Amino acid sequence: MDDMMDIYPEAWQTDAFVGENANFYKRKWGEHPGKYYKGWNWVPLFFCIEWMVYRKLYAEAFIIFLAAIGINLLFDILFPLSSARWGDTARILGPIFGNALYYMKFARALKKSSSMAQADRKEYLRKRGGVNVMALIIVVLIEIFIVYLQFNYL
Fold first, then answer.
1. Smallest Cα–Cα separation from 24: which of 85, 136, 132, 103?
2. CB 35 within 8 A of CB 99
3. Residue 88 DSSP symbol
4. Radius of gyration of the chain from Cα atoms?
């Protein structure tokens, strides 16, 4: 895992993987070379799971989701009269580690594609990276449905 933080990609590789917001990530990832911390990202502070799904960090989003549920359940058991939603504290991981998680996904894609010809590698990085707008829409619709159920049936 440590060697993933020591990868220094070429500009075209970052462009292919990230897409139109590549300059933001080039700057963030370049500010902290060789480190796990890759800078603060404001978007996941407010939309942690949504941002992760949008950036195709599906496993990470699922882990944050489960952590939030687990923390809420724990606090409901320990403090049954409290109405606080402590599970949202798990979401603070997104803005702190989001850029690093995204970089690690990028580094894994770079390693897997290292033996490919440049054209094939560019296409591979484009498919592994980028964004997934449809998955984001699905997550938002699920969240709207959950809120609806909470206000109408629970």
1. 103
2. no
3. G
4. 18
Sorted by sequence, the CB contacts under 8 Å of residue 114 that are 6+ apart come out as 121
Q: Which residues of 124-134 are buried (b: 16+ CB within 10 A; e: fewer)?
A: bbeebbbbeee
What is the SS3 assignment for 129?
coil
* Predicted pLDDT at 107: 92
Residue holding tokens 């991981």? 93
What predicted TM-score, i.e. pTM, was given to this entire model? 0.84
**CA distance from start to end of the chain:** 43
* Residue indicated by tokens 């592994």: 128
Dist CA 84 CA 28 (whole Å): 34
Q: Read off the pLDDT of each residue in 118-126 and give the average, rounded to a whole number.
A: 96
Q: Half-sphere exposure of residue 102, counting CA atoms within 13 Å on the CB side?
A: 32
Do the beta carbons of residue 22 and residue 14 sit within 8 Å?
yes
Residue 122: in which H helix or E strand, if any? helix 118-128
| pLDDT tens per residue, range 43-91 | 998 999 999 999 999 999 999 888 888 888 888 888 877 766 666 777 7
> Rounded to 10 degrees, what is the CA torsion of 93, 22, 50, 99?
-10
